[in-house]
Amino acid sequence: MIHTLLWNANYIDAEGQLQNHKNIEITDGVITAISDYVDGMILPEANEAIECKDFVVTPGLVNMHAHAAMNIFKGIAEDASAEEWFNDLIWPYESKMTDEDVYLGTKLAIAEMVSHGVTSFADHYFGEKQVLKAVHETGIRADIAPTIFGLAGNVTERLTEVADLVDKYNGLDSRVHVRFGPHSPYTCPEPYLTEIVNTAKAHKAGIHLHISETEEQVRQSMAAHGKTPFQVSYEAGCFDINCLVAHGLWVEDEDLKYLGKDTWFGFCGKTYMKLAMGNGGIYRNREKLNFSFGTDGGASSNTLDILEQARTFALIGKYIGNDPTTYEISYIWKHLMDGHRALGFNTGKVEVGVEADLVIWDLKRVNTFPVYNPLTALLYSADASNARYTMVKGNFLKYDGKLTCVNEAELLADVQAAHAKLLARGKGKAIVFY
Ligand SMILES: [Zn+2]
């Protein structure tokens, strides 16, 4: 039995309220008791006790949409249009990616996420065995959607591979879920998308796909099918099950009727700004959507800092709406925490019975001090240096400011070598086109 005590802690509860002077007990990865701390009291026994009076404890952060392995490409495609970014840079390099690139890129991404206080992420990529290896070795929580490109062929074979992983992992460990990852309606047109969704239904799994990322995708879908990408996805059954919509930036008003109660948007604002993707319907329709935040891949967002993405959403919203009173701090925090609901793990609350995915924030630092409201400090001022401890299911992945889930020096040396080989191999031929 591993018993950890966070004593004299200040924590932020599910409603975003600060609770002071509490002892939080964690046993075998689950929060087992929360009690009042009183000066001079005899503390509950524990294998490890951390005094938290100068810290703020929150549930861990969730990254709703990532292509973790793409950290290996961070900085490779800059100042490019979306078409050039995919067709001339990213997809040609990806076509020559090795298992080692996927593994190291994912491990690098996990290390970066943990450093920022991210405790779970929804990944969308191929090479899933390497992704799973990195997830197991580091101890992070993950929802993994192996990517399926309908237009690349071999869909039946690919579906069998993914279904085998779904059957193997779902229910095995509460820390790892697998779902189906059709890339998008434009790379998985009918009848592939329906086939993928029907397989997901049969295996009681969710799906994760890109929908209506750009205005041009909506225009092309209308020209080809007379339907928006959301309508195409709806007709394939995507919204009958738990569905993570990557981006959905250009959701149209008439698309809202297609969405299900378990349809979740992962908003990745930094990518939209960087690739100049415009002001889609997600802003005006936000009150009618379930959404949280994602980072997208490191090649488009350059960081996997989920606080930065939440902040970016608020800033874009205030700016384009010309109203500084909107996108309030409590509203952004609620949506940040909604990532836990979207992924369906037993996490996201500082409450007895909930798995202990927690971050201990040190806000007594020059970038965040003084603290009038800890949520303000977190959303508008904090960075990775403030995430002092990151815990997943009771295990510390970052401890007292230092990553413990990886050997950082070794990882950077391995990435350096892989990066040199990747550049030497150069670009191949993309298997799909944007
Ligand atoms: Zn994406």
Q: Major sheet: size, sense and barrel closure?
A: 9 strands, mixed
CATH superfamily of the domain at 3-59 and 347-403: Urease, subunit C, domain 1
- Rg of Cα set: 21 Å
DSSP helical segment count:
13
Give the CATH architecture of the domain at 3-59 and 347-403: Roll
CA(first)-CA(last) distance: 52 Å
**How many beta-strand elements?**
18
What's the rounded overall pLDDT mean? 95
Bound molecules: zinc ion
Measured by DSSP, the beta-strand proportion falls in 15-25%
Q: What's the CATH class of the domain at 3-59 and 347-403, please?
A: Mainly Beta
Low-pLDDT runs of 5+ residues are none
Class derived from helix and strand content = alpha/beta
CATH overall fold name of the domain at 3-59 and 347-403: Urease, subunit C, domain 1
Portion of residues in helices?
A: 25-40%
Shape: globular
